[in-house]
Each structure stands twice: as C-alpha cells, then as structure tokens.
Fold this sequence. Notes:
Layout: E1 5-13, E2 34-39, E3 43-48, E4 57-66, E5 71-76, E6 83-91, E7 98-107, E8 110-118, E9 123-132, E10 136-144, E11 150-158, E12 163-171, E13 175-180, E14 192-213, E15 219-224, E16 238-245, E17 249-256, E18 263-270, E19 284-286, E20 289-291, E21 294-298, E22 303-307, E23 320-328, E24 335-344, E25 347-355, E26 360-370, E27 375-382, E28 389-397, E29 407-411, E30 416-420, H1 421-424, E31 432-453, E32 459-465, E33 467-468, E34 479-485, E35 489-496, E36 501-509, E37 517-519, E38 525-530, E39 533-534, E40 539-545, E41 552-555, E42 558-559, E43 562-566, E44 569-573, E45 581-587, E46 590-600, E47 605-607, E48 610-619, E49 623-630, E50 633-639, E51 644-649, E52 656-666, E53 671-680
Parallel strand pairs: 39-46, 47-53
Antiparallel strand pairs: 1-48, 2-3, 4-36, 5-35, 5-37, 6-34, 6-36, 7-8, 7-35, 9-14, 10-13, 10-14, 11-12, 11-14, 14-15, 16-23, 17-22, 17-24, 18-21, 18-23, 19-20, 24-25, 26-27, 26-31, 26-33, 27-30, 27-31, 28-29, 28-31, 31-32, 38-40, 40-44, 41-42, 41-45, 43-44, 45-46, 48-51, 49-50, 49-52, 52-53
Amino acid sequence: MIAKTSISALLLSAALIIGPALPVQGQTAAPGSPASVTANGGATQTATTTTTTTVGTRYVASPISIPSNGGQVLTTTNAGSVSSVYANVQQGGNPSLSGIAVFEFTQNGIIVSETGVPASAPVTSGRIYVNVNGPVNTGIAFANPNQTGAVISFYFTDLNGNTVNQGSFTLNGYSQIAAFMNQAPFNASGSMEGTFTFTSSGPVGAIALRGLINQRGEFIMSTLPVSPLPATPVSEPVVLPQFADGGGWTTQIILTNLYDTPVSGQLQFFGPGSTSQPGPVLTMTVNGVTANSFSYTIQGRSSARFVTAGNSTNGPQSTQVGSVQLTSNDGLTPTMSGVFSYNYNGITVTEAGISAAPAGVSFQVYGVLNTTDSIQSGVALANPSASPVTVSVQAVGLNATPQSPVLTLTLPAKGQLSQFIGQLFPSLTAPFEGFFTITASAPIGVTALRTRYNTRNDFLITTTPARDNNQPIPGSGLVFPDVVAGGGYTSEVIIFGGPAAAGSLWVGSTNSTVITITTTTNPPTITGFTPGSGPTGTSVTISGTNFTGATAVLFNGVSASFTVSSATAIQASVPAGATTGPLTVTTLGGTATSASSFTVNACGVVVSGTVTLTANVISNLGIVGVQFSLDNANLGSTLTTSPYSLPWNTTTVPNGCHTVKAVATDTSGSQGTALRSVTVNN
Length: 682
C-alpha cells in the first residue's frame, strides 16, 4: 500500500483589523455661504463664512501644521486698498502655540517701517500708554473672536491721574476695529498724554501701536504693550533687555501704573559688562537730569515717560547700549516698556517698541538672515541678578532641526549682551529663517531684534518678543487683533513653539473682507527611497528635503501610513491596494513626486492582529502530527489531534511578506506540505 498524505487547504481565518484612515488636516468652517481664500502656497480652497446683520464675517485662511518646537510662516499678499482683519488660531488639543505678526509698510515704493506685534490671549480688561501730540499718535485694535457681541467701556487718564474722557461701544461677534485715539469711537482730545483703560463684557484681543509722521512725511510704526489689569498686586524686579543712547539713538522708557493708587520706585541703566566685570551702573542724562538712578512716582491709573538725551551726531558714533532695571518701593510694579528711535541727518528713520517681561530660563525667539532683502535678526539678553549666568544659544530652522552648534555664553552679573545672528554664528549661511533656542542657568530677560536696510539704505529696526517656554499658555488660544494687507501694508504671521500641533488660522472682520494669506513653507523634494520594491506592508525609507509637517504620503495614488523621522526622512509602509508607480509626499509647502517608481510585489492575503492557521489533512493512514512554521521557524509544538489549528499573533513579526508552512506526517513517516504567502500589516 502506498501511503498518501496531503494537505488539501491551509486556511487563515480572522477578522481583518484595519486601522483608521490617516487624518489629513482640513478646514472646519461655520455654516454659511462659500468664500474663496488662498492657502498652501497659492492653491485656491473653498471655505465658508458666517454673516448676519450683527455678526462679522470669518473664514479659514490657512491650515496650520507646526512641528515640535518649530514654526510656520504665513504672509498676506493682497494688493489694492487697505484691508484690516483679525486672525485667531484654532488648535487641535490643548493650546500650546505662540505667535508674532510683523507689519511692513511701503510708502512711495520704499519700505519705511516694520514692527513686530505679539499674538495674545483675549482679555476682559487692559491699560495702555497714550501719547497724542502733533506727529505722534497712539492707535489700538480690538478683535472679538466670539459669536456674541462685547460691550467695551473705556476712559482716559492724564498724567495727574484725572479722568479726562470716557465712553463705550459694542464690538459685534467675529468683528474687529482699529483706530487712533483721536478718532471715533475713542475721540481723545487733540493733545494728551496718559493712559487708556478698557473693560469688556466678553474676552477680546487687543494690541496698541505708536505712530510717528517723520520729517519726510513717512509713517513710522512701533509697538506698545496692552497690560491686563492684575487681580492682585504684582511685585517683582523688571528688566528691559535693550536700550540705546547716543550716535543718533534715543530711548523712551514708559511706565504704566496698573493700580488706582500712586506707585513709586527707581530706574537704573546698566552697561553690558564683561567676562571679568559685572555690568556697571551707568550715569545717564534722562529728562534733562544727569544721575545714576532715577526715581519715579506715578499717579493712579496714569503713566510716566523717561527720555534719554541722545545726541545730534550724524551716523552711528559712540552709542551706549545696555539694559534698564526697575525696582519698586511699594510692592506695586508698573508695566515697563521702551521705544528706541534712530535719527540720521535730522530725520527719524526708525522706531521700535520693546516690552519688559518676567525673567525666565527657557526661550524661543524668531530670527531671519536674508542677504537678498538685507534682513538680519539679533538677540538681546539681560541678567538682572548679582551673579553671572550661563546661557546656551542655538539656531534651529522652522522645522526645528539644528542649523548651528550650541553656543555657550556667560552673562556677567547685571550684564547684557546684544548681537546679530552673524556675530553669534559666523558659519550660518543665508538664507536662514527659524528660531534661537535659549536656555539659562538662572532667570534672564530676552528679546529679539530684527533689522534691515531699505533701498534708500535707511537702517530699520523692530523687536520680536520672545516665547517663554515655561509660562502657561492660556486655554483661550491666540488672537492677532490686527492683520493688515494692501495700501502698502504686508503682514507676516509667525506661529510657533511647543509640541507638534495642527489646526487652522481663521480670519474675521466687520465687513465681508477676503484677505489672502499664503504659507511660505518651502516645498518638499524626494531624492530617493529604499528599498525600491516590496510587497504590501514593506517599510520604505523616503529621502528628500522639507518633510516636516507632512500631511500625506501616497504610493501611486494610494494613501500610506507614515512617520516623519526628520526634515529629510520619512518612514512609510506600502499600503494594501498599492500598485507599481511613483511616490508622493505632501506638506503645507506643496507636493513632491519621485522620479522613479516603487515596484509593488504580490504577496498573498493581508493579515493583521491574531489569525488562526488551519491545515485540512487528507490521508489513508493515521496522522502522527502537523507542524506549522513561519519563514522556516517552527510556530508552537507539533499538533497531534484534529482539528489541526493554531492561533498566530502577527504583531510578533515585522510587517511585510512572510511564508507560512504546514507539514503533516503520517504513521509511515510520509509527509505532506502546504505553503502560503501572506502580508503582515499591523
């Protein structure tokens, strides 16, 4: 008798476990009529708006996708007349992002002014310094990112603490207003100095700007802080990281009293110091008085201004720089800010506003090095303590990848340092756009400086506030109360910081204004991939550039699961249903397609999770046992009784093509074998 033993079938039974589709960042819009907006480097998308007689218009201007500790830059591109809107960030998950808007103003074909404005959380009260006097004016922008209207009440206080004007108005939901203080609805007198205080029935975003018409009739902008009114007294040393005096420079130090009672204290100016010497207390001429310490007393709800003497020397000569420190006498610390101005040949060519903030130990600040546009950023660091502080600084790109070695500095006691990117990192090549990451061994004050030369060779400067990584991010999220385009204005919006985040940038205005905002993220490129072929489930490494924030990877049009390993590498898995063809990678900057095709090899059924292996055995003799194996390695022990079934946990092996084999042995020693190729895809 001839023994005949065979396996008629090798079966795999289990419900296929298919993971959820990879989410693609899209747009969630309120119901309403469609509006055309531009995003993603110029691709036209359709968003929706909400418009009623009492609610403004809002729409999604751009999706945002921020890599961990990186950022995204968006720029307005509208031409024609001036359009003014607000913008707010709607982020998935807990709010973690920071933001800056840089306004650029071009007059008669020449860039005459830039100013950096921080995004902020909505507030229900605030106070700002006001100066309306001839060529100088103060403006404010309010934005209501909520559907419900807000009643904003306000009053002005002069330098003596007297209320000189008051009023109120309603700011409709999803609406914005921007006006100078001597315009409606504020209607301040033609000449006044003091403060503007507001309260709101609902949270609103607010920013303040100082405007100066210079001797050439050009409009020069700088930023003023909006300070929320504190619920409890604040008493802490305050440091302004930068001032400049002499060689055409002057600095105004502005103190704003946030309380109803008078406050008092002292101001001192400190020089940079050196590795062997602490920062010296400087003798300065301020408000016509020469001294090394300046006392202040500020009436309740009012302000005080201290102006350094400067000089009339043409060109940059003998300029003193350093920091300013404030000490309170009464435990009630006023807000301190500054405006430094540069005058050349009798013309004020630039002004920049700077705000004091609590000292910290971990910061991120935006920076640019662009030789084509003559833009270079710098950083100012100030040590308010009586001991030296060790500081580490590194330049990283928008994708958070390091662009320089870590630089270790020592700030002397009471010392200060202000340097450009090119001074800190001589080997850093242009163009660069990204951030300084700054860590300190003890609390310091930090701000960033952004400078450029215009086509007339005027030196322009603005400041961009630092993100303190240890300060809590308000749960209400970010609002840019004013984003301007057209009429000579361009706004650059920078969103950055914290863990990886995604969401949308919404835009709103009182009128049905459509403003175009485009991302300036560089497009991706694919330079290669390995391996060049494989079955479903094969792990493929894609090489290229600008992969940070990738939103999709496709194998010949079929969406794949993937992980962005770095700005230059993506790990992707060949998806089920893929066929031979090119690979594509999509980011906010665009889509890249590979020059060559990936070859998809057939490899049987796709399995995942736990499946059951079953061997149907046909024999005219008794069966001794059935042994299963995977890729020639035994799976479990020999099965001696029917049914010959074995559970197999596919998560214990790598994704990709595998061979399952069953070998049946009868009582005569004859064997029958069955093979099956499968693709594991977990």
